[in-house]
């Protein structure tokens, strides 16, 4: 069968073209930033347009953005909201911005199999046999990055930190009224457990309301006792994380054990939020991986976000680092990327980001070494 070849052509007036692998937060921000820098962008995402995540993020927490590109990205991602939000709310804003941009071609359900480059372009080949070319190629494809294998073949994999985080977001109306936090309660809490700990966050409702009963409760339970389970179910092989532990795959005995532990460890309202998540199987176990990069670039190909650097979530710096990656990359390629200037621009991006992102990951490794088992 003849393969269909699709070239990422430069639009009229564009300074070049880019193919981005991955349309999570990092990929969307990178695509938006590169488009603003004048490039024609194709973004390829292996799953559908509405991925689910129970993660909670604070996009605008007072960081000082030193470039116009970074300020623009934070404004788009935050929507002006200064408090923590569900990952899905942030992804929705970024996706809406990308879909409205005529210089961005956003394609879902498109899985990349092969990454390569030559002196003239970089390209990917999908599992459907399609080939997408660009002047540059960017890997924003997460902790199990395919693009990283090309950029850093000597160090292609993130390594398991030997613990997981159970995460979920619960609508407040599912919690008994007597346990709902007061309207003046702190939005973040961190109750201590017995050798483990919990991060709890009060979130606005889907409609943006903080009215009592309309809010949501996000929780993240750091758990270092499930490594044998993760290996038995194939979530971790050797030191490499393969996939998360999704609700449907969690054994019933594990859910019972979690409920018993929660009843001993956690105060209200987090106890009832956790118990509701367990009862409804509305939770995910995320095995935590870490990656300290040696390089971010190879020729015309670069990596950003979790594909480039993977710190423990406890650093609370992953999203901001991804945003700064996208801004630095866009600013580095803004003068044009035809010919040899493509690799030179990417090396400038690497010089701006490599030292800093290495320090971010390393700052969390002391915790992982003491907490992981």
Report how far apart the termini are: 49 Å
CATH superfamily of the largest domain: FAD/NAD(P)-binding domain
Instruction: Tell me which CATH architecture of the largest domain applies here.
Output: 3-Layer(bba) Sandwich
SSE run: EEHEEHEHEEEEEHEEEEHEEHHEEEHH
Structural class: alpha/beta
Cα-atom radius of gyration: 21 Å
Number of strands: 19
CATH class group of the largest domain: Alpha Beta
Shape: globular
**CATH domain fold name of the largest domain:** FAD/NAD(P)-binding domain
Q: Whole-number average pLDDT?
A: 92
Q: Which residue ranges are poorly predicted, with pLDDT under 50 across at least 5 consecutive positions?
A: none
Task: Give the helix tally.
Answer: 9
Can you tell me about this structure?
This is FAD-dependent monooxygenase. InterPro entries: FAD-bd, FAD-dep_Monooxygenase_BioMet, FAD/NAD-bd_sf. GO terms for molecular function: FAD binding; monooxygenase activity. With about 375 residues, the protein is of the alpha/beta class. It has two domains: about 5-50 and about 85-160 and about 290-370, 3-Layer(bba) Sandwich (FAD/NAD(P)-binding domain); about 160-290, D-Amino Acid Oxidase, Chain A, domain 2 (2-Layer Sandwich), CATH 3.30.9. About 30% of the residues lie in helices and about 25% in strands. It has helices spanning about 25-35, 70-80, 85-100, 145-150, 225-230, 250-265, 270-280, 320-335, 340-370, and strands at about 5, 15-20, 40-45, 55, 85, 105, 110-115, 120-125, 130-135, 135-140, 160-170, 190, 195-205, 215-225, 235, 240, 285-290, 295-300, 300-305. The chain has a six-stranded mixed beta sheet. It has a five-stranded antiparallel beta sheet with strand order 12-13-14-11-17. A four-stranded mixed beta sheet has the order 1-9-8-7. A hairpin with a 2-residue loop joins strand 18 (about 295-300) and strand 19 (about 300-305).
């Amino acid at each position: 069968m003849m393969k269909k070849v699709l070239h990422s052509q430069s639009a009229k007036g564009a300074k070049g073209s880019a193919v981005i692998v991955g349309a999570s937060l990092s990929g969307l921000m990178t695509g938006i930033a590169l488009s603003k820098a004048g490039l024609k962008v194709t973004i390829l995402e292996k799953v559908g347009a509405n991925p689910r995540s129970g993660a909670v993020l604070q996009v605008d927490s007072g960081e000082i953005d030193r470039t116009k590109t970074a300020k623009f990205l934070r404004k788009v991602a935050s929507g002006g909201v200064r408090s923590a939000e569900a990952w899905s709310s942030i992804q929705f804003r970024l996706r809406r911005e990308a879909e409205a941009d005529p210089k961005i071609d956003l394609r879902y359900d498109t899985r990349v199999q092969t990454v390569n480059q030559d002196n003239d372009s970089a390209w990917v080949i999908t599992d459907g046999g399609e080939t997408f070319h660009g002047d540059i190629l960017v890997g924003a494809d997460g902790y199990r990055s395919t693009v990283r294998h090309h950029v850093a073949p000597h160090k292609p994999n993130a390594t398991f930190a030997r613990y997981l985080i159970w995460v979920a977001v619960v609508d407040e109306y599912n919690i008994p009224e007597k346990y709902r936090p007061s309207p003046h309660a702190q939005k973040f809490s961190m109750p201590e457990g017995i050798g483990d700990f919990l991060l709890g966050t009060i979130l606005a409702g889907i409609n943006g309301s903080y009215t009592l009963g309309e809010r949501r409760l996000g929780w993240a339970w750091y758990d270092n006792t499930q490594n044998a389970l993760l290996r038995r179910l194939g979530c971790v092989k050797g030191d490499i994380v393969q996939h998360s532990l999704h609700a449907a795959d969690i054994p019933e005995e594990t859910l019972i054990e979690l409920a018993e532990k929660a009843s001993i460890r956690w105060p209200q309202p987090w106890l009832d939020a956790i118990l509701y998540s367990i009862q409804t199987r509305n939770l995910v176990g995320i095995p935590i991986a870490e990656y300290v990069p040696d390089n971010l670039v190879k020729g015309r190909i670069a990596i950003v976000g979790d594909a480039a650097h993977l710190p423990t979530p406890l650093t609370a710096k992953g999203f901001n680092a991804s945003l700064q990656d996208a801004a630095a990359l866009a600013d580095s390629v803004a003068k044009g990327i035809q010919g040899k200037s493509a690799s030179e621009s990417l090396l400038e991006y690497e010089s701006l980001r490599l030292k800093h992102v290495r320090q971010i990951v390393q700052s969390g490794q002391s915790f992982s070494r003491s907490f992981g088992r």
